[in-house]
TrEMBL record, chain A:
SUPFAM superfamilies: HydB/Nqo4-like (SSF56762). PANTHER family: NADH DEHYDROGENASE [UBIQUINONE] IRON-SULFUR PROTEIN 2, MITOCHONDRIAL (PTHR11993:SF10), NADH-UBIQUINONE OXIDOREDUCTASE 49 KDA SUBUNIT (PTHR11993). It holds the Pfam family Complex1_49kDa. Residues 145-315, 316-390 form the NADH-quinone oxidoreductase subunit D domain. Gene3D superfamilies: Cytochrome-c3 Hydrogenase, chain B. InterPro entries: NADH_Q_OxRdtase_suD (IPR001135), NADH_UbQ_OxRdtase_49kDa_CS (IPR014029), NDH1_su_D/H (IPR022885), NiFe-Hase_large (IPR029014). Belongs to the complex I 49 kDa subunit family. One of its GO terms (molecular function) is quinone binding. This is Unannotated protein.
From TrEMBL, chain B:
Belongs to the complex I 30 kDa subunit family. Residues 45-189 form the NADH:ubiquinone oxidoreductase 30kDa subunit domain. SUPFAM superfamilies: Nqo5-like. Keywords: Transport. GO terms for molecular function: NADH dehydrogenase (ubiquinone) activity; oxidoreductase activity, acting on NAD(P)H. This is Unannotated protein. InterPro entries: NADH_quin_OxRdtase_su_C/D-like, NADH_UbQ_OxRdtase_30kDa_su, NADH_UbQ_OxRdtase_CS. PANTHER family: NADH DEHYDROGENASE [UBIQUINONE] IRON-SULFUR PROTEIN 3, MITOCHONDRIAL, NADH DEHYDROGENASE UBIQUINONE IRON-SULFUR PROTEIN 3.
Length: 390, 217
């Protein structure tokens, strides 16, 4: 950030602090604490400027933009098939999930629907990327609280999932596998058996984490009742995904929305928690990994035969129109508002990413908490920097 | 599927949206300029700029409590096309005729917001024209708290002001950054100085003389 920017920000901080004074009788001293952008406790380059009064946060202001890559502008100069390579990098831990809503939006505009085998495999890969994403969260969570062991388990077990994704798509982190009208390739031989094994391992991992971390007294006392988000506030801020369900809102786009994906063919349940605190958010995510492994297991049994690609022209031109498609991504609701003017590429794409809305609650949420809780609250909100800044 | 949500059949779902848009239009009254329902897809309305804020308030009372996003669309066709011109060639003449999208519009810039009824996932896209001389609409940040950051982002990227917003600081860019990157007439400099190699979908093989920057090993 430039000098001018910093100076303006400091002036803003001073003005905010002037009228927000608590604990006057204790004569605590105010101080401005800068966390980040390069700080081990903020996974990514999120910078948080907090004004403290003693140990208490008067207000906190996240400062984004250290990872801004301008994808909305870049999509305007790319063709539709090229955009998936960009959006892979928005939420880089669950990258396949980013491609799906964009491809679905393009398919909606073109009036194309992928064959059922492709929809099925899409859903499997979608859930695999959710597992890859959230397992890292579960491991990372321990690190934020001073427990180092879980992260090793998480990285070990996440690797199995990444190997599966790599086996199917060729890319560990950035599959770029979804195509308008279907998928690039069919599943490789042995994928189904291997995936079953991995799902079993991951359920073991979930048990391990639940035992190690969620049953831990320190973990519970650091997260229970901390950072409570009531239902109506969560909706107002547009929070989504596990953060919303942890506030007791029974809403999951996988279930509640009609999309050409295979979620309606399997038996699974939406996990909610009434508390809305940090613990609830972590707990919901843990249970969702379990549900995801169940979804994948059931989908593996019922993959229909058939083509993996619908008939689409070689050079893709999308007819004029506007479309909005959002899916329940690992981080929450991720949607694309695609405006087409009949060109090879989109006219405008608004990327509505989950973390942007989820993090926009932090100025409200961090007010009044204690300094160590900043880290647990941020960890439990779970953001990916690329998903905030795009 | 474990839940008891309605299995969507083509026609009834349609009626749901038709009825919903009628309800919304009745509540908003003369504020609605245009509306559109795409069967089994989505709803669009366009409201007058004076009623922008009250539209948000009314929709909130109508059950649209989940805040989706706020952004803007610059309808001007890009003077740089798709950024695939040869930078050494003389500039290409392009049409500047504005083609509006769903629910119409009269101005170059439109602010678009999306609100959703939780549980039914019935969403509505609300558009409002931004007057070229004012370049501002009312802020929704008092109505939906989540609008705060979205309006900051829109202000930074499009230069559209939001009256009543508490703090329109830049979100991503340095404070002294000039220009509004998502406007169509803001050039994407990387495409201006070097031809885009992605025009052809085939990468040159190592050993081809067209690209010199690859390492020789």
């Amino acid at each position: 950030m430039s000098l001018l920017g910093d100076r303006q920000q400091l002036a803003y901080i001073a003005a905010q602090a002037a009228d927000a004074r608590v604990n006057v009788e204790l004569e605590t001293e105010g101080m401005t604490l800068n966390i980040g952008p390069q700080h081990p406790a903020t996974h990514g380059t999120l910078r948080i400027i907090a004004r403290l009064d003693g140990e208490q946060v008067l207000w906190a202001d996240p400062s984004c933009g250290y990872m801004h890559r301008g994808y909305e502008k870049l999509t305007e100069v790319r063709s539709y098939p090229q955009v998936t390579a960009l959006v892979n990098r928005i939420d880089w831990l669950g990258s396949f999930a980013n491609e799906v809503p964009f491809i679905l939006a393009a398919e909606k505009l073109m009036g194309v629907e992928a064959p059922s085998r492709a929809q099925h495999i899409r859903t499997i890969l979608f859930e695999l990327s959710r597992i890859a994403n959230v397992t890292l969260f579960l491991g990372d969570l321990g690190v934020q609280l001073g427990a180092v062991t879980p992260v090793f388990f998480a990285f070990r077990d996440r690797e199995y999932v990444l190997n599966l994704i790599e086996g199917a798509t060729g890319g560990r982190f950035h599959p770029n596998f979804d195509r308008i009208g279907g998928l690039k390739d069919d599943l490789p031989a042995g994928f189904i058996d291997e995936t079953r094994n991995v799902m079993k391992k991951l359920r073991g991992f979930c048990d391990q984490i639940e035992d190690l971390l969620f049953g831990n007294e320190i973990f519970q006392s650091r997260t229970r009742g901390i950072g409570v988000i009531p239902k109506d506030v969560a909706l107002q801020y547009g929070m989504s995904g596990a953060n919303l369900r942890a506030s007791g809102v029974d809403w999951d786009l996988r279930r509640d929305q009609k999309l050409p994906l295979a979620y309606d063919k399997v038996d699974w349940k939406v996990i909610t928690h009434p508390d809305g605190d940090s613990f609830a958010r972590c707990w919901v995510r843990l249970q969702e990994v379990r549900e995801s492994t169940r979804i994948v297991d059931q989908l593996l049994d019922t993959i229909p035969a058939g083509p993996i690609m619908a008939k689409v022209p070689k050079i893709i031109k999308v007819p004029e129109g506007e479309a909005w498609v959002s899916t329940e991504n690992p981080l929450g609701e991720m949607g694309y508002y695609v405006v087409s003017q009949g060109d090879m590429g989109p006219f405008r794409v608004k990327i509505r990413s989950a973390s942007f809305n989820n993090i926009s609650i932090t100025p409200w949420l961090l007010k009044g908490v204690y300094v160590p809780d900043i880290i647990t609250i941020l960890a439990s909100l779970y953001f990916i920097l690329g998903d905030i800044d795009r | 599927m474990s839940s008891t949500t309605d299995t969507p059949i083509e026609t009834p779902r349609d009626e749901v949206r038709e009825a919903e848009i009628a309800r919304v239009c009745a509540a908003l009254g003369s504020a609605v300029i245009d509306s559109l329902v795409k069967p089994n897809d989505d709803m669009w309305i366009r409201v007058s700029a004076d009623a922008w804020r009250s539209t948000g308030e009314t929709l909130k009372t109508l059950g649209y409590t989940y805040f989706g996003f706020i952004s803007a669309i610059d309808w001007l066709p890009s003077p740089y096309g798709r950024g695939e011109d040869d930078p050494t060639a003389p500039p290409v003449e392009r049409s500047t005729v504005i083609k509006q999208g769903y629910a119409g519009g009269d101005t170059r810039f439109q602010v678009i917001a999306r609100l959703v009824q939780p549980f039914t996932t019935l969403g509505i896209n609300i558009k409002v024209d931004v007057d070229d001389s004012l370049m501002a609409v009312d802020s929704w940040s008092q109505v939906f708290a989540g609008a705060n950051w979205h309006e900051r982002e829109t202000h930074e990227m499009f230069g559209i002001g939001f009256n009543g917003h508490p703090d329109l600081r830049n979100m991503y860019l340095p404070t002294d950054f000039e220009g509004h990157p998502l406007r169509k007439d803001f050039p994407l400099l990387a495409r201006m100085v070097k031809p885009w190699p992605g025009i052809v979908d085939v990468e040159p093989l190592p050993g081809d003389d067209s690209e010199e920057e690859g390492d020789a090993s």
